[in-house]
Amino acid sequence: MSDSSSTFDTSVGGHGPSDAGNQTTPSLVGGHVQFVKGKAEQAIGGVTGSAAWQFSGDKDTLEGINTMKAAGENRDGQTQGFGKVEELAGKAVGCEGMEKEGVESKK
User: Fold this and answer.
1) Do 45 and 85 fall into the same domain?
2) Cβ contact 59:89 at 8 Å
3) Does residue 77 contact residue 99 with C-beta atoms inside 8 Å?
4) Which residues span the domain enclosing 47?
5) Is the dihedral of CA 33, 45, 9, 96 positive or negative?
6) CA geometry: angle at 30 spanning 43 and 98, to 5°?
7) Which value, to the nearest 10 degrees, does the dihedral of the CA atoms of residues 64, 67, 71, 72 take?
8) pLDDT for 18-62, tens place per residue?
9) Three-state SS at 99
10) Residues 45, 70: one domain?
11) In this structure, are 28 and 70 located in the same domain?
12) Digit-coded pLDDT (tens) for 57-88
């Protein structure tokens, strides 16, 4: 079992135990990966009845959303993005932000 005094970095881009001074630039892809990971953990928690899996899934989903929002603020939809592929992927995984970014980048 891990040390209960360990803290987690919940800021945008944080992915585990806090490490002072280790700031990362938010990544749209990284945010999507974190979001999908969270949704998978939530599903496992729902099937198994595990509150720990559900909590972890909720945390990862929220971190993914926050990372995507931060990365989206720094993104130029006219010059960056994957257009229709990104839009369809967003629809497939239920990510409205990804779907919106895809629509904006194919214009």
Assistant:
1) no
2) no
3) no
4) 24-74
5) positive
6) 75
7) 60
8) 334 445 667 878 888 898 999 999 999 999 999 999 999 999 999
9) helix
10) yes
11) yes
12) 999 999 998 988 888 777 766 666 667 777 78
